[in-house]
């Protein structure tokens, strides 16, 4: 890259101290950006746990989201920008580690999207579930522990755990066949946020930002995964909570606020639109045992079954 200064990271310097072609780092930081740097002679596997950043490559920039894994090949030039509470693991290793003994991990990796560079300096971003992310982190911490304590046989133990990590990621890493599958992890996180903060003020913008997506992209992906808009889903969540609260003698105005509706009239309109009766009418019929909560709840589709959570 012309007129752009960068740090040239060499495998020989990186692994010289321990005479072993593997290192695992955990980073957690905030920064406007870090330095441009090039990987010479080694791969970088990135596992993103939390926070956000943009992975900037020559000519392109991609948003890095939690629950994402990707690979940078030897010779890759990149840096992170717009770094916010960015916690991630970097697994740095040389190609010789993939072909040790009778193993041929490179051939196994060939079937994984983590190995699809196609002339690019980064593999596709592959989303993984929270449970898979947690399991991967545990294995990486085992490697870090072995390489830190350096008990007898630590290289063999670290290598064995590295093999476990790579085989596990080969098995779970796949690019979804559909748009809805690709974004289900992020949409699932957004839904959990709505459920946890259903009574609080939430906007399309704030929810989209919580999962590192633009408003338009989030609206489009949410609709693709769930079949309804995010605001409509949030309203249905609030109506469900309101319905349960209406079984108590609490005032309609208080129930509206407790359910996340700042405007009582708007709450009443949405309630009648969904259930066919007003909140006041439901309270009266429920008190007279003429109508049950379950009769109305059947009209609220449970989207949990549509989301890989």
Whole-number average pLDDT? 82
Indicate how many domains the architecture comprises: 2
Q: What's the name of the CATH homologous superfamily of the largest domain?
A: Regulatory protein AraC
How would a textbook summarize the main sheet? Answer: 8 strands, mixed
Query: What is the CATH third-level topology name of the largest domain?
Result: Jelly Rolls
Shape: elongated
Structural class given helices, strands, pairing? alpha+beta
Radius of gyration equals: 25 Å
In helices, the fraction of residues equals 40-55%
Distance between the termini: 42 Å
The CATH class of the largest domain is identified as Mainly Beta
Low-pLDDT parts are 177-181, 301-309
Under the CATH scheme, the architecture of the largest domain is Sandwich
What is the count of β-strands? Answer: 8
Give the H and E element order.
EHEEEEEEHEHHHHHHHHHH
Percent strand: 15-25%
H/I helix tally:
12
Strand and helix layout:
Blueprint: E1 7-10, H1 11-15, E2 22-33, E3 37-40, E4 43-57, E5 60-64, E6 68-72, E7 77-93, H2 105-109, E8 126-127, H3 130-149, H4 154-172, H5 179-196, H6 204-210, H7 215-226, H8 230-245, H9 252-258, H10 264-275, H11 279-287, H12 293-297
Parallel strand pairs: 1-3
Antiparallel strand pairs: 2-7, 3-7, 4-5, 4-6, 4-7, 6-8
Helix pairs in contact: 3-4, 5-7, 6-7
Could you please describe the fold and organization of this structure?
Helices cover 44% and strands 21% of the residues. Strands 1, 2, 3, 4, 5, 6, 7 and 8 form an 8-stranded mixed beta sheet that branches. The protein has helices spanning 11-15, 105-109, 130-149, 154-172, 179-196, 204-210, 215-226, 230-245, 252-258, 264-275, 279-287, 293-297, and strands at 7-10, 22-33, 37-40, 43-57, 60-64, 68-72, 77-93, 126-127. Mean pLDDT is 82; it is low at 177-181 and 301-309. It starts with 6 loop residues before the first strand and ends in a 12-residue tail after the last helix. Helix 3 runs antiparallel to helix 4, helix 5 crosses helix 7 and helix 6 crosses helix 7 (215-226). It is α+β, with helices and mostly antiparallel strands. It folds into 2 domains: 7-172, Regulatory protein AraC (Jelly Rolls); 179-306, Arc Repressor Mutant, subunit A, CATH 1.10.10. The longest helix has 20 residues, at 130-149.
